[in-house]
Write a structure and sequence with these properties.
The protein is α+β, with helices and mostly antiparallel strands. Helix content is 16%, strand content 38%.
């Protein structure tokens, strides 16, 4: 992610598994992996993670597209439309970092969805 920051500019934030509120629920050997990385620059946000599902990485799963919504309603609409004919892995749910869900669409593309409530 530091490479992308150097190439694209912006503000980079990283959270490892070990730094997250979920650290005690995950194996110690995963604590150095990046749970959530965010690079924000101008009009875009690039999100990344070292995490993978229970089956590990396999052809077609090494890439996930992420939509960061501007409202809860927007993210719910995108999630509903892209899940049609696909497989929901994690339904939209409030997590410590915001509303999150993920799925594989009917074409085999992995999607993650996130909405962070504005800070008061």
């Amino acid at each position: 992610m530091t490479f992308y920051k150097d190439a694209l500019g912006g503000e980079l934030t990283l959270m490892t598994v070990g730094e997250s509120p979920m650290a005690s629920q995950l194996p110690a050997d995963s604590h150095k992996k990046v749970m959530h990385a965010s690079l924000k620059s101008g009009g875009f946000t690039l999100l990344a993670s070292d995490m993978s599902g229970p089956g590990g990485f396999k052809k077609g799963s090494e890439l996930s597209l992420t939509i960061v919504g501007s409202s809860k309603e927007e993210i719910e609409s995108f999630f509903s439309k892209l899940s049609a004919g696909g497989k929901v892995t994690h339904a939209l749910k409030e997590e410590f970092f915001g509303l999150y869900g993920d799925l594989t669409d009917k074409y085999g593309i992995s999607w993650m969805f996130n909405y962070e409530k504005p800070k008061a």
